[in-house]
Specification:
Number of strands: 16
Radius of gyration: 27 Å
Number of helices: 13
Distance between the termini: 45 Å
Shape: globular
Length: about 475
């Protein structure tokens, strides 16, 4: 009975354009819906391309000139007719009837047919970005990459954890957090414990923030589930408008128990990065080429010629020596105690000619939870993973597993007392990393600005919609 109900439901609906291209059921009556992309007039006929967003390929409609008033760029339509094939093998629908679903007046509509627009212009109208073909290719790629990563981690035995967006700790300790409190002053007054209480932190009885990382929560889960990950939005209050920074972005974070050394973390990153990239290229190369169709210099084989090569591993001292020897090439200051700038990160990837790891960092430059080396306590077992164009795409470490050393590095903040408890009761060594999903996608698609690989970008002075 249920099979009959499901089958009847599908047969009564219009196929998507992606389904039409996949099935290629020629000389069959068909009904299709989508948005008008182009209109061309030839003798007694009109040719129109429509797209419904399910694929980068447009479907051609062959219509009578009497339908001209119904074919307006940007409008949504339903077309009925016969699916046929041109002598060159292109699918087309010989239309019998067109129904306008939603008209699109040209006045104030930001786009015109057969016109290219800059990413900055397209970004001005976030609610209409899904009408731009290249943007839709990006969204489908984003969806594809997300699925590939989830499936990969499932097959590798990792368990997904939904870590909280609201938190009471600043994991990275940089102070780049957004504070969360009720907007209602009346609610704040009601929740205060007495009339003399002037505190703003009354809802949770302490300061609360939007998360900058789910890592600490993952560590708690890894101490009983062994292999865990989270994938979701994270937030940084950075006053930056650069091409690689957002105030809200998506982070993939992994944590694994029973880690022996930083080599284990490097191995996990390398295997995941190569495997997921290869599968993504196998499934999305057509979309990548559509996004880069106006870039004549873009060659997908050259961009990913590192796939079968070994990634290079440099210590921080080795990396800094390379940077110092090429100091004249940088606009940014070269200073051992200031770390490696974005410009210097990208230089290192070009120098190595492959993605590379920078390991064994001075402890002053990294977070409190990173394990100090036994042979040199001034160095922590940390890494930055650098790729071309964007520089750092992931950062990771072996976590400090010694109770006394960790306690000495932590502040007296009671909100992290539980974190110390992990080293006290059934402790194991864990390690992991966080990878910027948007930066990863930005590199794969060769898109200049990170603002154009996320549907609704937020950055300093910009929070539209």
């Amino acid at each position: 009975m249920f099979k009959h109900i499901i089958s009847r439901s599908f047969s009564s609906s219009s196929p998507t354009i992606k389904e039409i291209f996949k099935s290629r059921q020629l000389n069959q009556p068909i009904k299709v819906k989508g948005w008008v992309k182009t209109i061309r007039s030839m003798k007694e006929l009109l040719f129109s391309d429509i797209n419904d967003g399910t694929t980068g390929e447009n479907l051609q409609l062959v219509c009578n000139k009497a339908d001209k008033s119904k074919l307006i760029f940007g409008s949504s339509i339903e077309a009925s007719g016969m699916l046929t094939e041109t002598p060159k093998g292109q699918l087309e629908v010989k239309v019998d009837n067109i129904k306008v679903i939603g008209d699109c007046p040209t006045e104030n509509y930001p786009y015109v047919a057969r016109t290219s627009y800059s990413p900055e212009y397209i970004r001005e109208n976030l609610h209409f970005r899904s009408r731009v073909s290249s943007f839709n290719s990006m969204v489908r790629c984003r969806h594809q990459l997300s699925n590939i990563i989830h499936n990969y981690l499932f097959n590798e035995g990792f368990i997904q954890i939904h870590t909280p967006i609201l938190t009471v700790n600043d994991c990275e300790g940089g102070g780049e957090v957004f504070t969360v409190k009720p907007d209602s002053e009346d609610l704040i007054k009601v929740m205060r414990k007495n009339e003399t209480d002037k505190s703003e932190e009354v809802f949770f009885d302490r300061k609360a923030f939007l998360t900058v990382s789910g890592q600490l929560h993952l560590e708690a889960m890894a101490h009983g589930l062994s292999k865990v990950y989270t994938f979701g939005p994270t937030f940084r209050a950075e006053n930056s408008k650069s091409a690689i920074h957002l105030s809200e972005f998506y982070m993939l974070e992994l944590e694994e128990s029973f880690i022996q050394s930083l080599d284990d973390v490097i191995g996990t990153i390398t295997k995941m990065f190569k495997t997921c990239t290869k599968e993504f290229l196998d499934k999305s190369s057509d979309e990548i080429m559509r996004i880069n169709k106006s870039n004549k210099d873009f060659k997908i084989e050259e961009r990913f010629n590192w796939m079968d090569k070994e990634f290079q591993v440099l210590t921080y001292d080795e990396a800094f020596k390379i940077i110092k020897n090429n100091e004249s090439k940088f606009k940014t200051v070269v200073d051992y105690n200031e770390g490696i700038s974005k410009e210097q990160e990208i230089f290192l990837t070009n120098y190595c000619k492959v993605p590379c790891f920078v390991i064994d960092w001075p402890k002053e430059q990294k977070s409190f939870y990173m394990r100090q080396r036994k042979d040199n306590p001034n160095i922590v077992e940390a890494l930055d993973f650098l790729i071309p164009q964007v520089g750092e795409v992931a950062g990771g470490s072996v976590r400090e597993d010694n109770y006394d050393r960790l306690k000495a590095k932590m502040s007296a903040d009671e909100s992290l007392r539980w974190y110390l408890d992990l080293r006290k009761y059934g402790s194991v060594t864990t390690g992991g990393f966080g990878m910027g999903f948007d930066r990863y996608l930005q590199y794969l698609l060769n898109i200049h600005s990170i603002k154009d690989v996320i549907p609704f970008p937020r950055w300093a002075h910009n929070c539209s919609m």
